[in-house]
Amino acid sequence: MILSKLVSRSLVRLQSTVAAFNSQNTPIKQTQLFINNEFVEAKSGKRFEVVNPSTGDVICDVAEADKADVDAAVGAARSAFEVGSPWRTMDASERGRLMYRLADAIERDIDYISALETLDNGKPFSDSRNIDIPSVIKCFRYFAGWADKVQGKTIPADGSTFVYTRHEPVGVVGGIIPWNFPLLMFAWKMAPTLACGNTAVMKCAEQTPLTALYVAKLAQEVGFPEGVINVLSGFGPSAGGALAYHMDVDKIGFTGSTEIGKIIQQASGQSNIKRVTLELGGKSPNIVFDDCDLEQAVGGSHMGLFFNVGQCCCAGSRIYVQEGIYDKFVGEMVKKAQARVLGDPFDPRTNHGAQIDQTQLNKIIGLVDSGVRQGASLQCGGGQHGEKGFYMQPTVFADVKDDMDISTQEIFGPVMQISPFKTMEEVIERANNTNYGLAAGVFTKNVDKMYQVSSALKAGHVWGNTYNVLVAQSPFGGYKESGFGRDLGEYALHSYTEVKCVTMAVPQKTS
Under DSSP, is residue 371 helix (H, G, I), strand (E, B) or coil? Predict the structure, then answer.
């Protein structure tokens, strides 16, 4: 009864917020580049259109950054990082305070920012408001707490010396972020950058720049010094490429496809050997044993694939189900897929939004068609939904073979592939038979089996009896062609600092 009342109150609050903001009355407040604490037009004067995925209509146009604008932003970030600058002389605790203030400002404007995210990305407002933007706030607050706790060591070295280490900021950090979780990916890169004392140039995905540009305004409001935070809207080959090749950028943090990740790593080698962290694609296995809690496994696997309409790099798209429960699992999964509600993302009843654009929708449909041609059993879905917007029907394939295109290629859409297996040894081998290694899932009540399988899987993040649980405190990143380096948690800090060792001669050692 109490839970029912809480859910009812939450729905009422959501409905009232939707009444205040929707696709017709969400104002667009920032469309210029943010460089050196000012909003400016691109030096070329060019602008490009931003499209609403749920309708296909143009939302607005924004400034289009290219190499000249990247140069200006990097120059501002470099000046802000110079020794003696306000940022470099600021107490670490004060850096943290600014980050807390930014999180507070985002929380203050959470309804507007959530609506802007939904408008720009096409995901349900309920997801933006209840998952994405609260996670952004938590991310900034988590790393704000680290700002005055990044520290070195004193080392009892041999000889008459005093040896200590400093963890110093890397310098100018370039971030290149994707469109599937626009502001959350901004936070994943920006928060550790700032906590460690670096300065930043963030290149947003051209499909979804609006929330990052608005948060840049909030950073200006709460008092970040000039040049510390710079935010650019632009395209990958021009703005992203200029950032990756820039000789005055010290680090690139990238989230996106493996194909582009390889290009960015090459750019580092061909420029100034800047350090790179890459969170790339995935084709994650999700293993369901016959001793699992079936209801838990069906629910977790459903969200593991269909959350964010499958536009998750860690989506559990290769589902291996042990033979004893295979038919029942497939049947239950089809029911849940068919029950998803597609439509206006501002409608509180909608839980399945649009794909990001027509190009992505066409790619998904093409891979679905290949699955049918290659003999997989299409259980439901398989095509575009509606005539307006970029909606894809929730799709489930059964009896998928490991060499089919839908089983080897990252679809990045709401397409589930289910295959039967017999033994633990067999499924471990099949699960690891991929170029990717981002994430994996295991459903079983047997703790020994859970430990053995999770230890054997070649993946950076393994979920047990759940899926897609990502929190600021725990690290996230991949093996193999899913990249290297970690976002989130204490481990993320390692990529944003340099370790300096200082050895000083002393007249006499005192141990």
Answer: helix
Structure-token pair, residue 336: 């849940």
Give CA–CA dist 260/203, Å, rounded.
14
Active site residue 279: yes
Residues 117, 279, 410, 481: which is the catalytic one? 279
Exposed, middle or buried: residue 511 (CB in 10 Å: 0-12, 13-18, 19+)? Answer: exposed
- With a cut of 90, say whether residue 358 has pLDDT above it: yes
Q: Which two tokens stand for residue 135?
A: 């996670």
- Of the residues 139, 204, 312, 313, only one is catalytic, namely 313
Nearest Cα neighbor of 381 from 396, 365, 400, 399 is: 396
Please, are residues 364 and 413 in contact by the beta-carbon 8 Å criterion? yes
Instruction: Tell me how far apart the alpha carbons of residues 505 and 290 are, in angstroms, rounded to a whole number.
Output: 65
281-303 tens-digit pLDDT: 999 999 999 999 999 999 999 99
Identify the band that residue 25 occupies on the pLDDT scale cut at 50, 70 and 90: confident
Mean pLDDT taken over the chain: 96
Q: Does residue 259 have an active-site annotation?
A: no
C-alpha triplet 265, 87, 192: angle, nearest 5°: 45
pLDDT score of 192 more than 80: yes
Q: Is 267 helix (H, G, I), strand (E, B) or coil?
A: helix
Contacts of 81 (CB under 8 A, 6+ apart): 87, 88, 169, 171, 172, 198, 199, 227
